[in-house]
């Protein structure tokens, strides 16, 4: 099944809209006079899902016109997308048990494979630069309580 860029955008809007409504619903809607903390996320999520449904209706109406089809991704773009998603997932998974610096190193090392080519010295230079800058900003500049390593610091 081919999914065009317009259809993919509609699907993403619907999924994120429904997810936002589901999460916001748990916070409580409140009343019209005194809205609860979940009222705004529910309204925004519903609006996002409705926009996605409108997008899908547009796609359905243009389904017979082959000139309106635009592919969502070319085959060459899928590997970098999956590698970057894996890098972000690895960072999110590693930051609490291992600390900020090992999670950043894993993020950069995995994301490096999204591109073709590249010298090893560039990888190590990017690692050093990103680790120093992110640590300086978030740990020392903003004072966030991040562990740099799981074993201390």
What does this structure look like?
It contains 5 helices and no strands. It has 153 residues and is an all-alpha fold. The chain folds into 2 domains: 5-68; 75-141, no CATH class. Helix 3 (75-98) packs antiparallel against helix 4. The termini are far apart. The mean pLDDT is 87. Residues 8-146 form the DUF1468 domain. Keywords: Membrane, Transmembrane, Transmembrane helix. The chain crosses the membrane at residues 7-27, 39-60, 81-114, 126-150.
Give the beta-strand count: 0
The major β-sheet equals: none
Number of domains: 2
Shape: flat
Distance between the termini: 51 Å
Keywords: Membrane, Transmembrane, Transmembrane helix
Transmembrane segments: 7-27, 39-60, 81-114, 126-150
InterPro entries: DUF1468
Organism: Pelagibacterium nitratireducens
Task: Give a brief outline of the structure.
The chain has 153 residues and is an all-alpha fold.
SSE layout and pairing:
Blueprint: H1 5-25, H2 39-61, H3 75-98, H4 100-111, H5 120-141
Q: What characteristics describe this protein?
A:
67% helix, mainly alpha, 5 helices, 2 domains, 153 residues, flat
